[in-house]
């Protein structure tokens, strides 16, 4: 098979496409991170990141992927044997929980069907039953990238308040920040976990935790071992973040990606993600209309994710050959299934630097792949997406 030409359409749910102007902004040699030229860029990018998080609180950043931010949240907030309650949503909630166990925490899972999502009432009940307030933190993934499902955070906050429970609210925004609505301060979130490579449209490698005053106070008594991610140590550094060398080019990129987000307007960015997600769903709905066609993995429309759609393959068909065909023939990369969903689903990422023609190209490639692989599906998914986007 000859190497595919033309633009590589990257439709994974992260990392995401990096805008040309962000690439240009990062294309520079090394600079001393204490140099006044860089400090100015850093401060602008840092202030912008806080605006995107809609917070006045402090953000601690590190050279790490999202896993590092998870580790930062756990190591900074808890002591050995502390209990945390992790809301099950899919692969990523399970990984965060596994990390908590590895750090010696008593991790309770709030069980949920991966296709439906957790019930808010169950969260309330679990917290209300914890009359001794043993649960120190409630961990929630705002947008579960493996299943294509999101969770309404204001309702989670209300559940905690209604149970009059003092647990810290920790939220993973790795595949939602810059794509779905998010308001750290208004929604009373104590610790936000985020990363560079999705809605912020940057390369992988910088991740962060945003920390409320309540969380910082808890941190000061927390005894889990930590060093690289230690918030106290970070807050004493000149940049009030980072232990060690700062990835300077990422900050030139971050300043530019925030400029792009704000030029479009954060509300418009969210509206664009909502629109492109709905167009994707129109296509999937059409494909699903055939007998034995692929289906939405998420069977709870209220929780459909606006940054990724996970599509369940018909029984007995693997998604891997389909993804391979689409990649090799059309230069379009889709996400695969993770752990127990391996081969059972494919994931269409529709977040970050994306517009209508890019999405339609991806949907067209998926529909052609379904034909080539002989997978039953309703015809006209791309048409349905176009009709929606054109406002028919
Ligand atoms: N949380 C969510 C919701 C994610 O989607 C990911 C990665 O895709 C992670 C955490 C882990 O981040 P990373 O792979 O950057 O370590």
Which key terms come to mind for this protein?
binds pyridoxal-5'-phosphate, 14 strands, Aspartate Aminotransferase, domain 2, 16% strand, alpha/beta, globular, Aspartate Aminotransferase, domain 1, 392 residues
What does this structure look like?
By secondary structure, the chain is an alpha/beta fold. The chain has two domains: 9-16 and 266-389, Aspartate Aminotransferase, domain 1, CATH 3.90.1150; 20-262, Aspartate Aminotransferase, domain 2. The protein contains 13 helices and 14 strands. The protein has helices spanning 20-26, 36-53, 66-77, 91-102, 120-129, 153-162, 213-219, 231-236, 248-264, 266-288, 319-330, 356-372, 381-389, and strands spanning 9-11, 58-63, 83-87, 106-110, 135-141, 143-144, 149-150, 168-172, 191-195, 206-211, 295-296, 308-312, 332-334, 345-349. A seven-stranded mixed sheet has the order 2-10-9-8-5-3-4, with helices on both faces. A three-stranded antiparallel sheet has the order 11-12-14. A hairpin with a 4-residue loop joins strand 6 and strand 7. The mean pLDDT is 97. Pyridoxal-5'-phosphate (PLP) binds at residues 14, 65-67, 92, 141, 145, 172, 174-175, 195, 204.
């Amino acid at each position: 098979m000859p190497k595919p030409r033309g633009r590589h359409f990257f439709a994974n749910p992260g990392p995401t496409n990096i805008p040309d102007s962000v690439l240009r902004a990062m294309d520079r040699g090394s600079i001393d991170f204490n140099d006044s030229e860089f400090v100015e860029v850093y401060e602008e990018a840092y202030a912008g990141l806080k605006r995107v998080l809609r917070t006045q609180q402090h953000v601690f950043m590190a050279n790490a992927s999202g896993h590092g931010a998870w580790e930062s949240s756990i190591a900074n907030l808890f002591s050995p044997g502390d209990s945390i309650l992790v809301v099950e949503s899919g692969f990523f909630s399970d990984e965060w929980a596994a990390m908590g166990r590895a750090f010696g925490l008593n991790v309770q899972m709030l069980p949920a069907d991966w296709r439906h999502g957790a019930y808010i009432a169950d969260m309330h009940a679990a917290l209300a039953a914890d009359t001794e307030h043993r649960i120190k933190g409630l961990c929630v993934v705002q947008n579960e990238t493996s299943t294509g499902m999101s969770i309404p955070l204001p309702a989670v906050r209300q559940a905690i308040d209604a149970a009059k429970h003092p647990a810290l609210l920790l939220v993973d925004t790795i595949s939602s920040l810059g794509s779905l609505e998010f308001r750290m301060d208004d929604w009373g979130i104590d610790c936000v976990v985020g990363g560079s490579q999705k809605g912020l449209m940057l390369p992988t490698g910088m991740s962060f935790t945003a920390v409320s005053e309540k969380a910082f106070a808890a941190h000061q008594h927390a005894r889990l071992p930590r060093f690289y991610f230690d918030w106290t140590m970070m807050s004493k550094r000149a940049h009030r973040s980072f232990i060690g060398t700062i990835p300077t080019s990422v900050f030139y990129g971050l300043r530019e990606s925030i400029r792009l987000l704000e030029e479009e307007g954060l509300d418009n960015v969210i509206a664009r993600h909502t629109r492109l997600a709905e167009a994707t769903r129109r296509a999937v709905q059409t494909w699903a209309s055939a007998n034995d066609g692929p289906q939405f993995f998420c069977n709870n429309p209220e929780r459909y994710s606006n940054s990724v759609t996970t599509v369940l393959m018909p029984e007995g068909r693997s998604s891997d050959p389909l993804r391979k065909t689409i990649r090799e023939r059309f230069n379009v990369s889709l996400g695969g299934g993770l752990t127990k969903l391996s081969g059972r689903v494919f994931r269409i990422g529709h977040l970050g630097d994306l517009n209508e023609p890019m999405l339609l190209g991806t949907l067209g490639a998926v529909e052609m792949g379904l034909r080539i692989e002989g997978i039953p599906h309703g015809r006209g998914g791309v048409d349905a997406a176009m009709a929606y986007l054109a406002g028919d």
